[in-house]
Each structure stands twice: as structure tokens, then as C-alpha cells.
Amino acid sequence: MISIQSNNCIVNSEKMLFTWLNAYEYHREREKQELLESYSKIMPTEWSRGVFLTLLVEKGKAISNLGALVEVVLGKRNALSLIL
Asked: Which residue has the higher pLDDT, 4 or 51?
């Protein structure tokens, strides 16, 4: 995976994803909103939202693929088909 950095911070990281979720999607934490807004001077908010949504989609794919692997191991499936 490509690493996207801004102000010595990896934007597409687990830490920043949870910061974004807690700032805008779950708790509306003002401190975290301010942190993310400080980065918006370098990268637009809409762009970073796209990065975070992509991270969530990739996590969903990983969970689905892991479930498929478990089904093969348990004998509920004969073959493994992955979502790429």
C-alpha cells in the first residue's frame, strides 16, 4: 500500500482513520476535528474523506476474505474466492 504523508503524519493510517471517525462520524470530537482541519490546508477535506472511506472499504474486503478462508478451512466451501 502506498503511504500518504502530510506534516510528518501518515494520512492513510489506522491512527488517522480512527481520528477521522471520532472527529466526524461518531463522537464529533472538536479536538480531533481541529487536528484534521489543520491538515486541510495541505489536502482538501473531500480528498481526505475519500482516503478514509477507501480504508474502510479495504477493511470490509479483508473481513470478507478472511470469512471465506475460514469457510474453506471448516469445509463449508471447496474453493477460496477472494474480493480484490
From this structure: 51
